[in-house]
Design a protein that fits this description.
The structure holds two protein chains of two kinds. Chain A is built from nine helices and 13 strands. Chain A is an alpha/beta fold. Chain A folds into two domains: 208 residues, Rossmann fold; 88 residues, Alpha-Beta Plaits (2-Layer Sandwich). In chain A, strand 4 and strand 5 form a beta hairpin. Chain A is globular and about 70 Å long. In chain B, 46% of the residues are buried. Chain B is globular and about 55 Å long. Chain B is an all-alpha fold. Classes of the chains: A alpha/beta, B mainly alpha. Chain A: This is ATP-binding cassette domain-containing protein. Chain A: It comes from Nonomuraea phyllanthi.
Chain lengths: 306, 273
């Protein structure tokens, strides 16, 4: 079966280096990594907004190069893309609907993304979240076969985020292919059929979320405040990351760590939990650079509960 | 076989032809009417100048005959000049700014991912420019005729034909300028500069002969400005005759045709970095 999207050894200095992956029908592939790791550049190369130095891209059976017209079955919502601010949301939706041969507004999509209250508003007057929902709506007009999205829900409230995730789910159900760049690994774990972990522009690992998590074996995880001294703990791996330090090891090693940390932390109760995709990312990337990990959203379960 | 989940789509979409063109014309006309710089260039500024000239020149010298053309009043020259100004402004100024904005926002790239044909978009831009020019010219003519009556010598069909020639040349220039990968700020500077050149140095906004005594150096500039050739051409057409500048105009038409070919090659839809 031909892939909807096939990316081979795509490079663009200094952001991307020999990135390869595919997107099949009925599949959501999340390209995951903190901001600055090449996700946005990858999307720009795919839609033609940036010119790659090397590599091969085939989408919907067509090989596309820089400046080539993308096939009409492709849709994309990139973070930097918009429409002229004087245009109303409803006008833009109608314009693209007509260009795709549809009469009137795509009601299902309007309802799903809750665009009805925005239809008579100009793009310039939308909030960031509203604008991103509207742009996603525009991307989905015409029922595309392949959709490229660049962190569509970043920074949005739970309601908007849920709507966007639902829309992506419906695209998958409709046998379309979706490639989403995400910085939120918890969201990627919820959404993705397959994940491509990106680190400094290179593919770190690729596979289903469960497979990537299984790479950690029988490891468990515990988050502790960063000020605690953890360098003398036995049998645990320490990864400092922003507001917390993560300890990885067997359940027994972590229980021992709790014993050792208790005198320093008073009455705190630590939670030991199974690893997530984020832990897989942190472990696989191996180099704990707090600056590079600032964009990674903290899963709530990681927080040590008092 | 792709299922249809969120929207319905007819196979193929509105690739080209009337549907896509009409859809794009309607959308861009609506956008243009909400764009201050468009209203300023196509309506407000020329109209303000026309009114000023009507009030100052027209009322003071309503019956003065223009230069070596017996029977032609000063006011009779203003209408074709204003129409020429608006036509050139709609092509050069408006198109350049609209296209650079559409590219900067990613609208061009988004449109190009739709089934629309490239030519439909460019044709829609041209149609919108012609609609704006027509509306503006009709408005000028209405005001001028109501105040002073129709000119003694008046050939509206010739004038319309000449305006189409100007429109073709200026739209070709606008598509080329707007089609190049020029930063939006660059377009914001370049387009008004072109407009100023057009307005002051072609005889369109201010009659060329007016500069001869006041600023001879500016008059010299007007003699080599290609837009001045077009302007003379429009004025002569409004009087029902072929201007002496027709060879220059023919040259401009050829240049515009070449510009179309160049535009086809260099038009940057993607804004690729």
């Amino acid at each position: 079966m031909t892939s909807l999207l096939s990316v081979t050894d795509l490079s663009r200095s200094p952001s991307l280096e020999e990135v390869s992956f595919t997107v099949e029908r009925g599949e959501v592939v999340c390209v995951v990594g903190p901001p600055g790791n090449g996700g946005t550049t990858l999307m720009e190369c795919l839609v033609g907004a940036a010119e790659p130095d090397a590599g091969h891209v085939e989408m919907l059976g067509v090989t596309v190069g820089p400046g080539d017209r993308r096939p009409p079955g492709l849709a994309a919502a990139l973070r930097g893309e918009s429409v002229p601010g004087r245009m109303k949301v409803g006008e833009a939706l109608r314009l693209f609907s007509r260009l795709y041969g549809t009469r009137g507004l795509p009601r299902r999509m309007v309802d799903l993304l809750d665009l009805e209250p925005l239809l008579s508003r100009r793009f310039a007057r939308l909030t960031d979240g509203q604008r991103r929902r509207a742009m996603l709506g525009l991307a989905l007009v015409g029922n595309p076969e392949l959709v490229l999205l660049d962190d569509p829900a970043a920074g949005l409230r739970e309601g908007s985020r849920g709507r966007i995730e639902q829309a992506i789910g419906e695209l998958r159900a409709g046998y379309g292919g979706v490639c989403v760049v995400l910085s939120d690994l918890a969201q990627a774990e919820r959404l993705a059929d397959r994940v491509v972990l990106l680190r400094a522009g290179r593919v770190l690992a690729e596979g289903t979320p469960s497979r990537l998590i299984r790479l950690l074996g029988s490891t468990y995880v515990m988050g502790v405040p960063p000020h605690l001294r953890v360098d003398r703990l036995q049998g645990v791996r320490v990864l400092p990351c922003g507001a917390a330090t993560y300890l990885y090891g067997s359940r027994e090693a972590l229980e021992n760590a709790i014993q050792e940390l208790s005198p320093m932390s008073g009455d705190r109760v630590w939670s030991i939990r199974p690893p997530t995709l984020r832990d897989a990312y942190l472990t696989l990337s191996a180099v704990p650079e707090p600056a590079a990990l600032e964009g990674v959203t903290e899963p709530a379960a990681l927080e040590a509960s008092a | 076989m792709t299922e249809i989940a969120l929207t319905g789509r007819r196979p193929g979409g509105a690739r080209g032809g009337g549907t896509a063109l009409w859809t794009l014309v309607r959308a861009h006309l609506t956008l243009s009417l909400r764009t201050p710089v468009v209203l300023l260039a196509v309506l407000a500024l020329p109209f303000a100048v026309l009114l000023t000239l009507l009030l100052v020149v027209g009322f003071r010298f309503p019956t003065i005959e223009f230069g070596a053309m017996p029977g032609v009043r000063v006011i009779d020259r203003l209408l074709p000049e204003m129409a020429g100004t608006v036509t050139a402004a709609a092509g050069i100024l408006v198109l350049t700014l609209q296209l650079s904005e559409a590219r900067a926002t990613g609208m061009l790239r988004r449109l190009r991912r739709s089934p629309m044909r490239d030519g439909s978009y460019l044709a829609a831009q041209a149609v919108v420019a012609v609609v704006l020019v027509t509306a503006s010219t009709v408005l000028f003519a209405a005001v001028a005729f109501i105040v002073y009556g129709a000119p003694r010598s008046w050939h509206p069909l010739y004038l319309a034909g000449a305006l189409l020639v100007v429109a073709y040349c200026s739209i070709s220039a606008g598509l080329l300028l707007g089609g190049m990968r020029m930063p939006r700020t660059g377009a914001r500077v370049a387009a008004p500069l072109c407009f100023a050149m057009l307005f002051l140095c072609s005889g369109a906004g201010v009659p060329r002969e007016g500069w001869e005594g006041v600023a001879p150096w500016l008059y010299e500039i007007t003699t080599v400005n290609p837009l001045a050739q077009l302007n003379d051409f429009v004025f002569a057409a409004s009087q029902g005759r072929l201007s002496d500048t027709w060879p220059a105009v023919a040259g401009l038409l050829v240049t515009a045709a070449v510009a179309n070919l160049v535009t086809r090659r260099v038009f940057d839809w993607e804004g690729t970095s």
